[in-house]
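Tokens in:
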């Protein structure tokens, strides 16, 4: 059997590369004669730079401002053939850079200055195309820190006037409102109800400046709410939104890998409704469904019922937390637990045909 292993990252627990290795190792224990294609994926969030570094360009490292007070080392990729820089906001202002669990205080204090410093480094290297992977940020500053680092709105727009700027994200939400950056993602970044209100007001004031600079209501456009509103900042600077998952899929040759597969194994930290709206798992399941290829999802936790899974093209979904017996063990021993879960899932497969394995 030809098995395509194409997971996203598992939050801050496992990178997509680490997850793919764990799945392959566990699967091989049970089905050593299967043929593997290893193709870690990303939708623009954590792992975006790591996945691309495996396939193209030069990995570079820049010391930049982290989401709080301390500086951090952020990796990025430069492809000299196309003069394209690939940056990940999670590298500079990601939740993993907080140094501890998110709190209401960090939700208010975290900013995107480091992302602006990465963009400046890319420009200094001669990049004429800058692709910024959005996702996994600890900040909800609407990209104000990023823009301040580039000299303010007017100066930043001038600096990027001759550059193709891409906001790589599959998040469809606007900057403000019930589906905006603060209300949807703020609680994931430590914000309590009072903090969400404060963040929303702060973003509302900033949105007026972004819209005025862009000459249109960029704050209401799909993707503006990505990465705590960094999406809106990039749109205001002349950027265009592209699918982060599609960018990764193109560079990893995912279409060819999918065409050759008998079964797809993917995964992420939390399989829920958001997974079906632009995330790697949802996009991969839809593409596989069109080819009648079964898809197995190995997630940290599963929050979708069976009917919704099947409607999305997911044949079966397994939770690491259920296999491990607790969320805590699933987190602290993630690689080993994912290996075990992959081995168990592989044991449930048969060899009766291309489209019926479970």
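Residues out:
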């Amino acid at each position: 059997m030809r098995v395509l292993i194409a997971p996203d990252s598992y939050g801050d627990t496992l990178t997509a590369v680490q997850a793919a290795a764990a799945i392959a190792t566990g699967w091989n224990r049970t089905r050593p004669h299967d043929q593997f294609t290893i193709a870690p994926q990303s939708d623009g969030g954590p792992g975006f730079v790591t996945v691309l570094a495996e396939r193209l360009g030069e990995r570079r490292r820049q010391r930049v401002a982290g989401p709080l007070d301390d500086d951090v080392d952020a990796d990025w990729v430069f492809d000299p053939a196309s003069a394209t820089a690939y940056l990940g906001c999670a590298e500079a202002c990601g939740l993993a850079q907080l140094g501890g669990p998110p709190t209401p205080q960090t939700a208010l204090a975290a900013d995107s200055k480091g992302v602006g410093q990465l963009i400046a480094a890319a420009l200094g290297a001669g990049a004429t195309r800058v692709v910024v992977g959005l996702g996994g940020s600890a900040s909800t500053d609407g990209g104000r820190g990023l823009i301040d680092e580039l000299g303010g709105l007017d100066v930043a727009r001038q600096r990027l006037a001759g550059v193709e700027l891409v906001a790589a994200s599959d998040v469809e939400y606007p900057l403000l409102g019930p589906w905006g950056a603060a209300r949807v993602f703020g609680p994931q970044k430590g914000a309590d109800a009072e903090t969400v209100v404060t963040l929303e007001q702060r973003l509302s004031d900033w949105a007026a400046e972004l819209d005025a600079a862009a000459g249109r209501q960029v704050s209401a456009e799909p993707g503006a709410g990505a990465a705590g509103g960094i999406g809106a900042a990039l749109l205001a600077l002349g950027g265009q939104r592209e699918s982060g998952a599609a960018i990764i899929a193109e560079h990893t040759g995912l279409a060819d890998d999918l065409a050759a597969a008998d079964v797809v194994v993917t995964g992420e930290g939390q399989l829920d409704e958001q997974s079906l709206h632009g995330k790697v798992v949802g996009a991969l399941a839809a593409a596989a469904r069109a080819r009648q290829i079964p898809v197995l999802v190995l997630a940290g936790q599963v929050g979708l019922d069976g009917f919704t899974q099947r409607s999305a093209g997911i044949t079966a979904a397994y939770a690491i937390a259920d296999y491990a017996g607790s969320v805590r063990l699933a987190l602290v021993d993630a690689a080993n637990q994912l290996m075990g879960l992959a081995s168990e899932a592989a044991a449930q497969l048969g060899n009766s045909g291309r489209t019926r394995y479970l």
